[in-house]
Amino acid sequence: MKTGYIVLVILIIFFAYLAYNSLHVQQKPVNLANKSNGNTITTNSVTTTTIPNAVPCENVYGRTYNTINVSSIIKECSWGGGNVSLWVGSGPFENERFIAIGSDNLTYINQTANYSCITLYGAYKLPKQNYTIKFILGPMNSNALLDKCPFASYELNTTIVPSNHSIYQNVYNGNFSTGTFSGWNANGTAFGRHPLNITLANINGCYPENTPWTNYSGTYFATTFSCNKTTRSYGSLSSSYFFANKPFLNFQAIGFSSPYIYVEILENNTPKIILHFNTYIGANTSAKTFSFRNITIPLATVYGKPVRVAIVANEIREYEYVAVGSFQLSETPNQYPGIISNITIK
């Protein structure tokens, strides 16, 4: 009996020893960030593998509306090396966090902010490799500016201007109050490098026919008029995308009737509404070239859709110019009688 008891004790000690060792064997660490959609990006020995069909990082963007309950967006991209700009906006959420992890397993961007609308956060110099992008959203913000910025978004690009991936609730920088063409795309040099400060132009004597500009709202306007009468080539100016969520687009302009000067509404880069105007009609002779007039574009045919507005100037002469600004969506029209000379709705 005593011998059997001793054997039992030995067996208990032996199995306890085995259990102890099994619980304390050092496990090889697993990095969850190293895997995405079944494709291994890195290993613990920092071996880089290529992500099949990875999109360029400068074309990577993401957006989520307040009607979609998501907490994060994860994507992969490839980068050839160099500087890249980061744009972020938390939209209906209290904050956002943007993380960029390289295939070398290093974190190159770890940013957080609470900008409601998409904003340039900063520029980063990233080495050539693949990256895993994570966009993490905080809790919903009951005080968010949903009428202006209804979605959280991020974007990587190589410029310092927002791209057309952003869709706004009104015409972004529609009155050019930034003093720049931020949010607008210039094609050609017809409108110069920046809007004209009308108030300052009046002070400095920069106006046509030796008479100051009149009847304008705001300070800055896009114009082909040149104070020094230098010749500019033809060109156009197109806005960022905005939702046509109101029936009218009001703006102010000066211009003469010409088949080569007009304002158009674009849907998917296709003209849907083309408007020609002549502010010289209905204006007395002494005011026709320097007095702004109110003009309205009806948006019924594109209502509720993402669109852009573009100003086209394919005829430039010394006294035949166009000046436009104060673009604003509205529930009611604000139209000076007799200004529209032709409107085409497709």
Write a concise synopsis of the structure shown:
This protein folds into 2 domains: 36-160, Jelly Rolls, CATH 2.60.120.380; 185-345, Jelly Rolls. It is 8% helix and 39% strand. It is built from 2 helices and 24 strands.
Task: Explain what the structure shows.
The protein has two helices and 24 strands. The chain has 346 residues and is mainly beta. The chain folds into two domains: 125 residues, Sandwich (Jelly Rolls); 161 residues, Jelly Rolls. Strands 12, 13, 16, 17, 19, 20, 22 and 24 form an eight-stranded mixed β-sheet that branches. Strands 3-5-10-7-8 form a five-stranded mixed β-sheet, with no helix packed on it. The protein has a five-stranded antiparallel β-sheet with strand order 14-15-23-18-21. A hairpin with a 2-residue loop joins strand 1 and strand 2. The longest helix is centred in the N-terminal third of the chain and has 22 residues. The protein is elongated. About 10% of the residues have low confidence.
Which features would summarize this protein structure in a list?
mainly beta; 39% strand; Jelly Rolls; 346 residues; five-stranded mixed beta sheet; 2 helices; 8% helix; 2 domains
Helical residues, percent: under 10%
Low-pLDDT runs of 5+ residues are: 18-52
CATH architecture of the largest domain: Sandwich
The count of β-strands is: 24
Please trace the helix and strand order, writing H or E for each element: HEEEEEEEEEEEEEEHEEEEEEEEEE
Number of domains: 2
| Biggest pleated-sheet summary | 8 strands, mixed
Choose one word for the global shape. elongated
Supply the number of helical segments. 2
**Distance between the amino and carboxyl termini:** 104 Å
The CATH class assignment of the largest domain is: Mainly Beta
